[in-house]
Amino acid sequence: MVTTPEPQTLQTLNELKIIGGVETLYVLPIKMPFQARIDTGAETSSIDVQNLRPFERDGDKWVSFDIINRKNGEKHHYEKPVVRRTNIVRIEDKEHRYVVNMNIKIGDEIINTEFTLAEREKFTYQVLIGRNILNGRFIVDPSQQNTLH
């Protein structure tokens, strides 16, 4: 038996933007865009950082780190409060990562959300966009790329 979705569901689907498997975004305030891998299997988005250093500020846990755009070498130094720590489980090991809030611009939307901080130099893409950004905003069509000009 085929059922028709509720009208509200159709309206919600029409409001979601279709994005591809790779999209252009900005990690603010860096001016050069990044190509980001869209990963519906990842709960939290992730970003490649260097010189990660935890420290305390007024009794709270913070981290300092650099993000360097591989395309042009543009570098920005950040100091952010730690939202939480998380464990990333892979086949061969478990990795502990810091989670901070970052501002990104994707399409015409500026989003402030959680990112895990990782050393992603061995990965093609410096930014991975997970479900914490995708849910309620986008439908992913992996056959497309860079749909949000």
Low-confidence stretches: 7-11
CA-to-CA gap between the ends?
40 Å
Largest sheet: 6 strands, mixed, barrel
Radius of gyration, in Å, reads 17 Å
Number of β-strand runs: 12
What does the overall shape look like? globular
SS content category: mainly beta
Q: Please list the strands of the largest sheet in the order they lie side by side.
A: 2-3-11-4-10-9
Average pLDDT, rounded to a whole number, is 86
* Relative helix content: under 10%
The number of helical elements comes to 2
Order of helices and strands: HEEEEEEEEEEEHE
Proportion of residues in β-strands: over 45%
Please, what is the oligomeric state?
Answer: single chain
SSE blueprint and pairings:
Elements: H1 7-15, E1 17-19, E2 22-27, E3 34-38, E4 45-48, E5 50-57, E6 60-68, E7 75-81, E8 84-89, E9 94-106, E10 109-118, E11 127-129, H2 131-134, E12 138-140
Describe the protein.
The protein has 149 residues and is mainly β. 9% of the residues lie in helices and 52% in strands. It contains 2 helices and 12 strands, in the order αβββββββββββαβ. The chain has helices at 7-15, 131-134, and strands at 17-19, 22-27, 34-38, 45-48, 50-57, 60-68, 75-81, 84-89, 94-106, 109-118, 127-129, 138-140. A hairpin with a 2-residue loop joins strand 9 and strand 10 (109-118).
